[in-house]
Design brief:
By secondary structure, this protein is α/β, with parallel strands linked by helices. It contains four helices and six strands; from the N terminus they run αβαβαβββαβ. The longest helix is centred in the C-terminal third of the chain and has 9 residues.
Length: about 150
């Protein structure tokens, strides 16, 4: 048999390792868990923290904590481009977060929405959103539409 004669299915399916099936299997007695210690016991996977480093000081505690982190104060927007508005809404439509959710452009009505200016807009629409980029506001007004910021 030559290497080019091997089909895709040969070597594709590997038998699973059957542990704890006697010493003759090669994976009997301790079933590959070694002797003693937390990882040898049943139910130990829930008690060992992923950041645990044994007796060594964990990396997170070794690193200095300095400065300010904005993660809890940052405002994250759901992004909608003007090209998406042009393809999903008719001329003269009123677009608000509920209409965007119905059109499948955003996932959550309660999170803030920002309209960005990527894509062309040829229809006159009235858009209500939490924020607009300068280019998006210009494209909407150039098409004859209007923008309003919701609170």
């Amino acid at each position: 048999m030559m290497i080019h004669e091997i089909t895709a299915k040969v070597g594709r399916y590997k038998k699973r390792k059957r542990i704890g099936r006697g010493v003759g299997s090669g994976h009997g007695k301790t079933a590959g868990r070694g002797h003693k210690g937390a990882r040898s016991r049943s139910g130990a996977s829930g008690s060992i923290h992923p950041a645990s480093a044994g007796g060594q000081m964990p990396l997170f505690r070794r690193l200095p904590k300095r400065g300010f982190n904005n993660v809890q104060f940052r405002k994250t927007y759901q992004i909608v481009n003007t090209g998406g508005l042009d393809s999903r809404f008719e001329d003269g439509a009123t677009v608000d977060p509920q209409a965007l959710a119905n059109a499948g452009l955003i996932a959550n009505v309660n999170k803030p929405v920002k309209i960005l200016g990527n894509g062309d807009l040829s229809k006159k629409i009235t858009v209500t959103a939490s924020a607009f980029s300068d280019s998006a506001a210009k494209k909407i007004s150039d098409a004859g539409g209007s923008t309003s910021i919701e609170s």
